[in-house]
Every structure is written in C-alpha cells, then in structure tokens.
Amino acid sequence: MIRLPRQLEGLARMLTYILGHRPDEFGLVLSEEGFAPIKPLLQVLSGEPGWGFVRRHHLEQVVGLLSPPAFEVAGEEIRALEPARLRREPGEPPPTLLYAAITPKAHPRVWEEGLKPPAERELVLSTTRDAALKLERRRSPDPILVTVQAQAAARRGLQFTGYGEGLYLAPALPRDLLQLPPPPQVPEKPKAEKPRPGVPTPGSFFPDLPGMLQPPAKHRGKGKRDEPNWKSGARALRKERGKGGNALARKGEKGKGRKG
User: Fold this and answer.
1) Strand 35-37 relative to strand 144-149: parallel, antiparallel, unpaired?
2) Nearest residue to 145 via CA among 117, 104, 187
C-alpha cells in the first residue's frame, strides 16, 4: 500500500475491515462477487464516529490512488479485491426468533403485506433486538421492531441462510409469521356536503349584472343635491310666464311709439 494522505489512509483501512473482513458487523451483505452497494456503505460510515465526512468521491480517491489496487468500483457498487466470505450453507435451522426493524413509513405496508426484500436481494435479520434497531436507525431515528417466527417459517419450507455472526438472510415473509405493533390510525377527513340546488353556499356571490352594466350617474358639482320634481317644474313654469310678460311689454312699447 502506497503512502496516502492521512485521511485517505485511515479510510482505506476502514474499508478493508468492512468489505474484507466483517461486513456482517455493520449489517452489510456482500454479493457472490463481493460487492456492496455504495449508498448503504456510506450510511454505515456516517454512523461511525469520525467517518461522517465520507462521500463517494473519497471512495473513488482511495480506489484510484492505491497501488497495488485493493478496491474496485463498478457503477453503484464497491468491493475489496479480497472480499469477506461469510455466507454459510443455506437451510441450516434458524433460532426460534429473529428480528428486523422498519421505518414508520413502511409500517402500514408491512402490517398488511408482510416483509419483502429489496429487488434481487434478501431480507437481513438479526439475532438480537438491539442489533436490528441499530441497523435501521441509519435510515430512521424511530424504527419499529418486527419479531419473526423463524422456526415456524422454516417448518413451512422457507429457507434461512446464516451470514457471519448474528445475521440471517431470508426470502419474503408473510404477515402471519410477524409480530409488530399496529400502525397508528389516521383520522378520516370529513366529507364535504354537496350544495342543494338553488341554495347559495356560504361565501357564494351572485352579482346583479343589469345594475352593474348601467352607466354611472353624472357627477354633480360639489355641494349640489338632487331636487324634487315639483321644484324643477315650478321653476320651468315661472320661466315661461316671464317670457310671456316680457313679450307683452315689448308689444306695448311699440304701440306707444306709433301713436306719437
């Protein structure tokens, strides 16, 4: 191993221990070729004191700088070139009980459907409650414990495989082989009442369109007020009478002029 920066040198040793010796201690299960998914590996490191800083590019630096190479990255997986071989022969009798832990989000689904492994993988079960809860706390601060009736499942023909110390691998497990608390009940939302025909609902507004389309009244001068009809009529009559009187006066004045 060539001399690496101190930080990467320590990371290389940690990866050698996890991927090359004891992945089971951290709840990791390697594939037949020795690969582990990078995302769970980063979750493992984030939960270990002093390794929370590690990101994917740190792993790639270790892989690229070591000579001779000790690790390999392929897509979203990483392995030690000398990986741990911890998988035991399948079919060995499991303990009476095994344990898993799930997130609160998965709780209702597991309550209804049982435990199902990720695609192309197996369920990882622990021999102790504490180990199961510790593994799941990497994803959720409040995991829910699930107890598996392992021997009852084996009697039904479900196959368990030991892995390292304290882990067992299993296929999907039906609901009746699990013990877990019921999920909390979510209160149903009250259904909104349909409005009855012809009855306005609260907050509804029906504008008086004809009234809104009428032209606005002409603005009167400041201080002027609308007067009753009888006043305007009397004023018009006085004007007419005034016009008649003026006409008679002008006619009389013309007559006097002719006589003179």
Assistant:
1) unpaired
2) 104
Domains of the chain, first to last: 6-80 (1.10.10.970), 97-179 (3.20.170.30)
Has this prediction a pTM greater than 0.90?
no
Checking if the pLDDT of 57 tops 90, the result is yes
User: From CA 229, how far away is CA 218, in angstroms rounded?
Assistant: 18
| Averaged pLDDT for residues 231-238 | 67
Question: What's the whole-number mean pLDDT along residues 158-186?
Answer: 94
**Strands of 71-74's sheet, edge to edge?**
35-37, 77-80, 71-74
**Cα–Cα distance measured from residue 227 to residue 229, given in angstroms and rounded to the nearest whole number:** 7
Neighbouring C-beta atoms of residue 73, cutoff 10 Å: 16
Quick: pLDDT tens for 192-220.
666 666 556 555 555 555 555 555 555 55
Separation of alpha carbons 84 and 82, rounded Å: 7
